[in-house]
Write a structure and sequence with these properties.
Elements: H1 2-8, H2 12-19, H3 27-40, H4 46-52, E1 59-64, H5 70-85, E2 89-94, H6 99-111, E3 116-119, H7 130-134, E4 139-142, E5 152-156, H8 158-171, E6 177-181, H9 187-202, E7 212-214, H10 219-230, E8 238-241, H11 244-254, E9 262-266, E10 280-283, H12 286-301, E11 310-313, E12 316-318
Parallel strand pairs: 1-2, 1-3, 3-4, 4-5, 5-11, 6-7, 6-8, 8-9, 9-10
Antiparallel strand pairs: 10-12
Helix pairs in contact: 1-3, 5-12, 8-9, 10-11
Length: 327
Amino acid sequence: MNDVARLAGVSIKTVSRVVNDEAGVHPATAERVLAAIDQLGFRRNLSARNLRRGSSTGTIGMVLEDVANPFYSGVTRAVQEIARLRGRQVITGSSDEDPARERELALEFCSRRVDGLLIVPAGLQHGYLVPEMRAGTPVVFLDRPAGDVVADTVLVDNIGGTAEAVAHLAAHGHRRIAFLGDSPDIFTANERLRGYREGCARAGLGHHDALVSMGPHDEHSVRRALHRLRTGPAPATALVTGNNRITVHVLRALAGSTDRPALVGFDDFELADLLSPPVTVIAHDAKALGKAAADLLHARLDGDASPPRRVVLPVRLVPRGSGEVRR
């Protein structure tokens, strides 16, 4: 402010009035001050100004598994839309399924005095957030629950979704239905495995560990799993895949194959309806997940002090062809 005042030939108080949009400054003087600010390349530190005034920083911190994943892109877009309507900006980071990285990001956002946090948890220990929550920073967990704190949580119906996938394949005559899932340490992967087993039980199929392959999965491990599941005296004739990335790996591995198993994937993905055959999926609305989490967070910021909520959003089967292949 001293530099601006010196260049514009005004007092520091005048500079303060201009940058804070206060009345009482002649338009020509204000223009001179703004020109000096522009010439010197200065920018207002809105966060610092708001903290001095005791108000919010106008930011929300969001920790995701991977910002490059199209599913989380949809979640982020919905959060940004809600935040923009409320005059806030969203800053994001990827945990890469690393609990230490999740903690590092969350605490970094807190050190920047974000108004609230949205977290897709990578680990099961979230006691590090208790001091922040007690200090008034609201936290909402989405896609997965927190491990050891009680907080608002928004999930999707993972168990019901995979159970429905199994029922759909069983209705088309399949008795050997395999499941390819992510690491069972991940909440969603474990819940979808539970749904697969429940679906098999309801269809009178039982469940066999030989038909289950849990990750983490990449293209090579999926190829190996498919080879094991589709060979031998009683091969799988149908597959349920636990997320969109695994589904894509399976499709790559099956490319050019004339003997393709029936397939239902959890999570929709771009161009799934344009493949040959189009991919049947258990779909859930990523934007609805982001919106529900953002709405909960803003309700807390507006003073809602009710007990923590657990919201479970529905999923739906989208039949397109790959899951309707009969045995």
